[in-house]
Amino acid sequence: ARRVAQGDLTARAELEGSREQLSLGASFNEMTERITRLLEAQREFVADASHELRTPLTGLRLRLEAARFELGDAPAGAELEAALAEVDRLAATVEELLVLSRAGEHRAEGAWIDLGELVTATLERWQARARERMMTFERRIDPAAGSVWAARRDLERALDVLIENALGYAPPGSAVTVGAQSGAITVRDLGPGIAEDKLE
Predict the structure, then answer these.
(1) Is 100's pLDDT higher than 90?
(2) Are the C-beta atoms of 178 and 187 separated by less than 8 Å?
């Protein structure tokens, strides 16, 4: 059991001892084999989906680059530049999924991340969505917010989820306040919050 918990799915219990021990050993081996099959199926699915996503992403990037070249310095060119950045982020996520499917576990690289800069960059990505909802962002960055050691993509994803929820649940026309303090980021909105029976 300890070997399986540490990731060795080839481990099997020796079938010996009393009838109860034999039954327990057989059940343990059956469980381990089932876990192995499920994990293998999951990895194959992730790998297949990732490979399938690569081609349309490459095509989308080429089309955006061509459009940006045609527009030059026109105002829409900046929007296309932002769209290209989003395509690159999506491509990086797909690449991580491929690594995950090959290794089973993926430990993202850590780096020092300036919290104020992260909040600013994230809000720029969500400005268009906020305008669609007739909502605004209030940015509150403490000068002492500093930096944290983290995997940037993971931190970006977590912050994206919070902001997406805020824009989705807060009333149109309201403001979402995103702040950076020492070692922390906060997202506050005027949505209904979480029902009492869902808090736990």
Answers:
(1) no
(2) yes
